[in-house]
Every structure is written in C-alpha cells, then in structure tokens.
Design brief:
Length: 187
C-alpha cells in the first residue's frame, strides 16, 4: 500500500514538472516506447538493469540504431538516451542516478529525450529518506557523482524567459518497471 501511494505521489510530482511517466511490464514495452520517440540513434550506456534486460540486443533486434562507438560524437547526434535510476523522490518527482562514468553523463545530457528505467520499489518519500543510501554511495567511493534530475532541462537565464532543453534533454520520460531492481546502489 505504501509503494502504491509513493508511486502515485511521484507520478503526480514528476508530471507537474514536465516529465512523462509510464508503466511498462517488460523489455518489449521499453523497446516499443523508445521506438515511438525516434527513428534516429539511441544511446544506451552500460548499466546493470540494461544488462539484466538485455536491452541493447532487444533494441537491435527491433531495428533501432544504437550509438556504440565514439560516444561523445554519438551522444551529440542521438535522439534518445536510456539510463536507469538508483532511486527517486516522490515529493519532487526527482530521479537520482550515479553518473560518475562519462557514458552515463552523455546519455543524460546530450540527446533530446532522456528515458529513465525506474523500479517503483526505489521510490522514496523525499530526500531525507535517501540519507542512508547517500552514505553508502560515499563510503563505497567518495568520488561518486550523483545526478538529481527533476523534469526536462530548463533555464530562465536567457532574458529571463523560461526555455526548455537548452542545457539538456527537452523531454524526460520515466518508465516504471516493477521487478527491475530494488537495490538503490544499482542503476
């Protein structure tokens, strides 16, 4: 019951800041979702949930072109970047992901669409509930980078006009995938 409430609050909060939130049941649904976003290049960095789903093979089998070499140039031309999330905050609709590796940072900042795979079991009430997980991150590796992503990229520093997508993706898509991973230290 608590998880259902957190999912509802998270979904409402994420949509309020411009994110798309959808429920998917399997890897085929993820592939279909990504294919609806683009017929161009897709970047899927190396992360645990993607490996478990064999997402790269599923995308290739469905005819999706993937960025696999020259990641910096490829990410700049990719239409979609797909990552996992370590956990999320229901109160703000924020997803948090460990982004120390360059391929993760590229996939979350350069493509027009960022698709995040998130297990609903990893939705926390708020940032205070994340303190134990943050301590674990920093005990394991004190030099980790964590990205807190709330909605699509936005700025108002250009003549004080709100602009979407200048410093990152124009659209954030969060796919809730039950059973993906309930380990907040794993993306």
């Amino acid at each position: 019951m608590q998880e259902e409430r957190l999912v509802a609050v998270f979904s409402e909060s994420a949509r309020a800041v411009g994110s798309e939130v959808s429920i998917v049941a399997d890897v085929e649904a993820v592939v279909d979702y990504v294919k609806q976003l683009t017929t161009c290049l897709v970047m899927v960095p190396d992360f645990a949930s993607a490996k478990r789903l064999d997402l790269v093979s599923a995308l290739k089998a469905s005819g999706v072109a993937l960025v696999q070499e020259d990641l910096r140039q490829g990410a700049a031309t990719a239409a979609v970047g797909v990552t996992g999330a370590n956990f999320a905050f229901a109160a703000t609709g924020t997803v948090v992901l460990e982004s120390t590796r360059e391929d993760i940072r590229l996939a979350t900042t350069l493509p027009e669409h960022h698709v995040v795979l998130l297990d609903p079991a990893k939705i926390l009430e708020d940032d205070l509930a994340a303190v134990p997980h943050l301590r674990s991150f920093h005990q394991n590796s004190p030099r980790n980078y964590l990205a807190y992503i709330t909605g699509p990229s936005r700025t108002a520093d250009i003549e004080r006009v709100l602009t979407i997508g200048v410093h990152g993706p124009k659209q954030l898509h969060i796919l809730l995938f039950t059973g993906l991973s309930n380990d907040p230290l794993e993306m």
